[in-house]
Amino acid sequence: MKHLLLILSILLLSSHLIGDNHKGETLYRWDTSSGYVWKEFGEKDTNPKYKGDVENGEPNGLGIFINTNKGKYVGEWKDGKKQGQGTFTYGKGKWEGEKYEGEFKDGYRHGQGTYTWSDGDKYVGEFKDDKPNGQGTYTWSDGRKYEGEFEDGIKHGQGTYTLPNGSKFVGQWRENKSWNGKEYDKKGNIIGKYVNGVKIIEEPVVVVEKKPMVVVRRNL
Question: CB atoms < 10 A from the CB of 151, how many?
Fold first, then answer.
């Protein structure tokens, strides 16, 4: 992916593409009350700028999109929307430093992708309608990890949640909560379980060894 984006950036900035009627063109996005439109003119500090392949007055093909201070997208387009493989890097603001690399559909994150947070957290897996949906792996910067199913951006379905010390929960999740499953320590021993969202502590099994029988013989 990184090599593809590097090649794309070089091609879009080359003089060869600028000389083509449909490649290397520049468009500006104008937001309106009914959506947005693309025009060949705009204000540098207010209108997001696109440079790349253009068809029927809209981004189509490969291009670079810079949304003033909000972020930058490098990748594929179709009918004026992000579609296919691409990388979106957030600019200044709430999500500064965060990045998504993967598939897009109709302008949204959709398909396989990787989202990296500025604090080091990372999600790798399926997206739908801009959120994690389906199978994926979320890794926290402190070493925690969840592998399993997601729905609308949260843990939902079958999955495994592992702590840095090796203990883990394996089972069903519902709306980001452990629902039905078992907890294990780092050695694989069951230490608890969840039934319909209620945690039940497993009592430790204590093995008592019987002392051998001692036969005392009386003096006869």
Answer: 17
Chain segment 98-144, per-residue pLDDT in tens:
999 999 999 999 999 999 999 999 999 999 999 999 999 999 999 99
Domains: count for the chain: 2
Counting every residue written for the chain, the total comes to 220
State pTM to two decimals.
0.81
15 and 52 in one domain?
yes
Residues 90 and 1 both lie in one domain? yes
What would the pLDDT profile of 25-57 be if each residue is shown by its tens digit? 999 999 898 889 999 999 988 999 999 999 999
